[in-house]
Amino acid sequence: MRITLVGSRHFGVTTLNMLREHGVGIVRVVVADAEDRLAATAKAAGIEVVVQANPKLVVASEIAPDTDLIITAHSHARIGKDALAAAKLGGIGYHPSLLPRHRGKAAVEWTIKEGDPIAGGTIYHLAERMDAGAIAAQDWCFVKKGETARELWERALAPLGLKLLADVIDYAKVHKALPAKAQDEQFATSAPSLS
């Protein structure tokens, strides 16, 4: 399986490492910032790195030829329709909430702010609307009393994202397709900016 990874920062690096350990081919890494630690890690591993022309949008020319699957890991860029069409299976991303709850940025912060006793993570199909694509995998965890968003992310949600991504990749390797269940729009919430 040939993967183009679009991402940044620590979660991008841990996703890259998990994919390499999982025996899939990472044919290209796409980043918004050439100085990002994901870019440095990919270059050190001999993986081609492409810097997005527009930090808010990934286009088809930035996706490696013959890509089977695009994976996003801590990317705030939209993956354009043309880019998704360039990959045989399209693209998936990890969102640290039980989609459709807490769509948008700052999902973990909103989980804490809303006092949710349960949090979770979702692997979803990248689509035209942000965080609104079909669900490929989902799991949950409890939120500890007094836990901060960062503590919840580091303790439970980041590891959960890596596990769910690995599960979906294993499924795709066997079935040459991705699981997909439509999100139930009646439960959708969109997190406004916290700033």
UniProtKB/TrEMBL annotation:
InterPro entries (alphabetical): Formyl_transf_N (IPR002376), Formyl_transf_N_sf (IPR036477)
Domain Formyl transferase N-terminal: 64-157
PANTHER family assigned: METHIONYL-TRNA FORMYLTRANSFERASE, METHIONYL-TRNA FORMYLTRANSFERASE, MITOCHONDRIAL
Record-given protein name: Methionyl-tRNA formyltransferase
One Pfam family of this chain: Formyl_trans_N
Annotated organism of origin: Bradyrhizobium campsiandrae
